[in-house]
Prior knowledge:
Order of helices and strands: HHHHHHHHHHHHHHHHHEE
Structural class: mainly alpha
Helix content: over 70%
Protein name: DUF6545 domain-containing protein
Number of strands: 2
InterPro entries: DUF6545 (IPR046675)
Number of helices: 17
Radius of gyration: 33 Å
Shape: elongated
Keywords: Membrane, Transmembrane, Transmembrane helix
Largest sheet: 2 strands, antiparallel
Number of domains: 2
CATH architecture of the largest domain: Up-down Bundle
CATH topology of the largest domain: Rhopdopsin 7-helix transmembrane proteins
Organism: Nocardia tenerifensis
Oligomer: single chain
Amino acid sequence: MWPQDHLPTGVTLSVTLFIILITLIRLALTLHTSIFGRLINTLLGFDAAAAFLREPIFAEHVARVIPGGLPTVFDTWHWLTVTAWAFGLGMALLHENGPVRYRIQFRIVLGLSAGIGLAFLVLSGPARAQGMSSVAEYGGWRYGVYIALYSALPVLVSCYYYVLKIRGTVWRTTTLWERISVATLVLFGIASSLPVCLMAIAAILDAAGAGNAFTQGIYDSVSKGFVSGEPGLFIFAALTLVFIPSSAQAIVQLLRMDAESRAARRMYPVWRDLTAAAPQVVFQLKRADSWNVSPQERLHRRRMEIHDAAEIVARYVAPLPVAVDELVESTVEEDDQEHMRMVAELALACHRLTEGGKDPTGEPTARGAEVPDEQTLLRLWQPAKSLLHEATGLPVERRTALGTPVVQAKPCPAGATPCGPA
């Protein structure tokens, strides 16, 4: 099945495992993506499966447990590659015809790839019956038709993308990485079709009696590359390289290290205190749904919950104690004093509603309060709580080196209310 002078197993195995690893990361961490992204994921999945079956170490083990042995593995590997190109053509159809109209054409393309897979099995039937390793070993016209069918979709995809590029429709893609993906498929389609064209030219010249050692060498080299699958393996690897940044971004999002997750963490102290006082604004998701929420959606929900909770808590504010007002007057810059009072009133109202057990749905105070904007809340929330702690003994949460929350409180000054636990 594979030529004797193939590359060292360590090289091809490393490339195969690289393709599989990047594909698994992308498939596992980009579950919610666009239609274009799902086509990319499926294309990578078929490519990874094809690379797995191409690798001799894996293919020989698989051949022992499936009917037909190595010829069937050979056919399956090439059918998976053809189907991957079918999804590449589906990406072009999507951007040419839109998410509705492309479906019928794409189903026809998938039907053609399924038909090619059946043709592979038929063409390799004699090789299977005679115990040969593949149709390449059997040779003859069956092998020529096999190569033509195997190469048809790559040639079609590259030509179709080229036509779309000339017409300008390929560049309707919405993101930079989608454009890079399309351009990469064009280049790889050309790279895949060039050897086939050379092989066809060599075969035609040989049939016309104009062949020589050079054309025979071209034919043998292309045929050997087709049998070993090594050129296609490195084309798969180059295609996979394009998706390393998106896979790395998915890992960063999983670890909550992306910009949206960091912003949500900065909002957490404000969100925690306000939603503790007005828990009805928090919509509890199921664990599975919470896992699948994107960082952008998580950040948006946190902002909305902070806003809604602040609007509710603002109906329960009371005038600041004299000690707090005097401390604001003496320690806060004049431009921030009014904002600090507004934030401190909200923090005190949160404390009364949470620690005092008052139901937020009960009677609000007669005095309402204006809700500060989000940036003001984030900037002044912790300073306001520290100021309240200093003036009234309101508990302030700090964190130890292990991240464990610890509540600090101090005795209340005379006449200062409310006061946290001593």
